[in-house]
DNA sequence: TTGTCAACTGACCGAATGTTCGGTAAACAC
DNA sequence: GTGTTTACCGAACATTCGGTCAGTTGACAA
């Protein structure tokens, strides 16, 4: 009766989760298309065929990774704090949350940001990402319409620059350097909202 | 005596230059590793083997493209305007020039920004790019030391955010949308230097 | 001790990859 | 017209690719 189907002590080895997290690491190092199943096998310490015991294939591995990134963004968009209040405050909240998601799910979001649309899996992910971008774009326009953003720059340009900055974090952020998600978000918001110059 | 070795009217076809520019376009659409020589051949309207009449191979095509981007950045760093005057003004000039180079050589710089280091060619390019990054990093530190940048953000973080923003332009800029290099640089400098909020 | 089963190996498959090569048609030089 | 050069094609090359499958191993239950 005790622990009938529970996960007891496994005799060391992989599971779908460990395969995914290691695979995503390699995808980010070499690029998805630049990564062979042989590369993954080497990183996992097993042979190629062992991978297929845990996951259906390379593209499904990518799909699961992209979903992790996109699910985070979807949850944020659905949050009440993204829907009510002054647009500029919602924008600030969304920027801060975006940075948090990017940092928390760094490898998954990094992968998402590099997707080009070379397969159905990638195209589906790009489509979900475009929905997020449209949400942001709308939010910036609202903030501009409410007079909270300087009127001498096109809101569309503001959107791209602001979230270009957020997304660029994926290119350099390393948790080992000590800066937390909030540290980065604070610096980003200071720069973008009130400016760097003294 | 007239036009002995000059380029006269070619009977339409490709040359190394046209192959390069079309190839770089495809590389940016699908990613370098995601692009096959067959893909390039299709885009060029010839067979795979015809490509090898004009260029030595796929990797050399990449190398030439990356050099175009890096040469632009090297020229800028060597310019006198990057060396003398208040650091904050040099920084502003370098940001503006970086945007100009990125826009002028958009496909080449875009390619450079996506290089992961999967081959010797890519590693050499990454090394040159790191030199540029070090130059920028030093410049920001100077501006901070001169008291021109708000002291409550780490200069290293400022460097990454500022040039993360510049580099992110490659992800969305389309000349057909009408914005010039200076338009983008103006908006970027307004945001980063004096802030978006009214 | 035997049987079960999760986790894996090694040999292999067909397709796709980057590249080479022998040949060739059209444009040009003379 | 003849010879040369330019720009290409089609077939083949070795290699690598993602993926399959029949078997093996070792921990564990009975």
TrEMBL record, chains A, B:
Residues 13-73 form the HTH tetR-type domain. The keyword DNA-binding applies. Residues 36-55 bind DNA. The keyword Transcription applies. One of its GO terms (molecular function) is DNA-binding transcription factor activity. SUPFAM superfamilies: Homeodomain-like (SSF46689), Tetracyclin repressor-like, C-terminal domain (SSF48498). Keywords: DNA-binding, Transcription, Transcription regulation. This is TetR/AcrR family transcriptional regulator. It comes from Nonomuraea deserti. The lineage of its organism: Bacteria, Bacillati, Actinomycetota, Actinomycetes, Streptosporangiales.
């Amino acid at each position: 009766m005790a622990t009938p189907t529970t996960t007891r002590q496994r005799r060391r080895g992989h599971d779908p989760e460990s395969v995914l997290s290691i695979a995503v690491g390699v995808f980010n190092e070499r690029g998805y298309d630049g990564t062979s199943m042989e590369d993954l096998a080497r990183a996992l310490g097993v042979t190629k065929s062992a991978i297929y015991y845990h996951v259906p294939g390379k593209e499904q591995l990518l799909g699961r990774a992209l979903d992790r990134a996109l699910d985070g963004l979807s949850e944020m968009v659905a949050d009440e704090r993204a829907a009510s209040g002054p647009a500029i405050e919602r924008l600030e909240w969304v920027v801060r949350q975006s940075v948090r998601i990017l940092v928390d799910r760094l490898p998954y979001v990094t992968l998402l940001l590099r997707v080009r649309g070379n397969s159905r899996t990638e195209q589906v992910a790009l489509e979900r990402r475009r929905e997020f971008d449209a949400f942001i774009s709308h939010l910036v326009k609202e903030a501009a319409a409410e007079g909270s953003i300087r009127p001498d720059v096109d809101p569309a340009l503001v959107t791209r620059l602001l979230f270009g900055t957020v997304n660029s974090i994926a290119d350099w952020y390393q948790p080992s350097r000590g800066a937390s998600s909030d540290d980065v978000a604070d610096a980003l918001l200071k720069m973008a909202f009130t400016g760097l110059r003294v």
